[in-house]
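Can you make up a protein sequence with its backbone structure tokens?

===
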Amino acid sequence: MTSLSPARTRLALLALALGGFGIGATEFVAMGLLPDIARDLSPALYASSPEDALARTGAMISAYAAGVVVGAPTIAAFAARFPRRSLLVALAVAFTLGTVASALAPTFELVVAARFVAALPHGAYFGVAALVAAGLMGPGNRGRGVAFVLSGLTIANVVGVPLITLLGQTAGWRIAYLVVAAIFAATLVAILAFVPAQPGDPAATFRRELKVFRRVGVWFALLTGAIGFGGFFAVYSYVAPLATEVTGLPASFVPFALVAAGVGMTVGNLIGGRLADTGAGRAIFICFGAFAVALLLLALTAGNPVGLFGGLLLVGAAASALSPVIQTRLMDVAGDSQTLAAAINHSSLNIGNSLGAYLGGLVIAAGFGFVAPTWLGLLLCVPGVLFALGGALVSKHLLTETGSIRTKDHDDGVTPLGA
């Protein structure tokens, strides 16, 4: 890749982050509009049982997460050899079309299907964009490169999601998704204008990329994200009823609750990127400890506005710090399969998304109340930490056996010292 001026580099990074902004909007805007979507797509059920209608509509969130899980490894493995800017352009087009379909689908079932299709490019975009950003930022800044791309997603939760939620509450949730589609269209233009051409990996093959799944360390990292991060989505998927039914705030305060979580996510993402560059393995345990404390505080204080907003800020910060840390850890243990490793992090996190939204809906529908998903999130921290510990023990065992960390050419799930 040719050397770029600092100004051109910043514009290229901003173009990549704009795509992350769009992804954050398309993924999270449903959380604040869940009651509106439920009333529109399931009016009879909502009239008889709002809890059941909200739980059913949560399938939109689960469907999007499932699309990420399917699309990330599939697209990344097939496309690793293609030029990266061309791939980013194709993914931006797919996002635009899928989001338009989500806005225009006439029935609940078709909306759910459209959300699945719209999610397919999610993980591949973040994976490829993270590699391009790391190349733009130079050696030693990989974690911060990942965090910069993810910053678009977190900033979306501060600015984009609350504003689009407010628009959806007044003009209709379908208009909200059309605005998101416009953001993806702008991303397409920005990538074409500012992101430099960057080759793919000409030696990459579908079979070689899939070798990443032979590495034990990869599986522990994926499970850490999938199970542990589910706790965040158990809470975040049901922010709207938590604010209105538990704290007793009017619906107009829901966007502000989302802002609190978004501010936390933005700060946490930056902290996580720096922690990742100092050692991703250790950083995972630091982030999980902070996450558990934040969830406990939210569960105990959500009944008053200060507790709600402060708790959501802390939960968002701790959970978001995990994302670049786990992604960097995956890239550490993935060997040659860097494109796939950077993408499948989003598969694991969206398994957590789907799991958290589903289990959160179950405990609400079972009558445990709207605080129950927060306690569920705290419970899910336990297996998350255990999987992280398992990954650390595997790496330590391999180091003890060999006397040194092996090179990335060995399928043992670890990388060279200093990598």
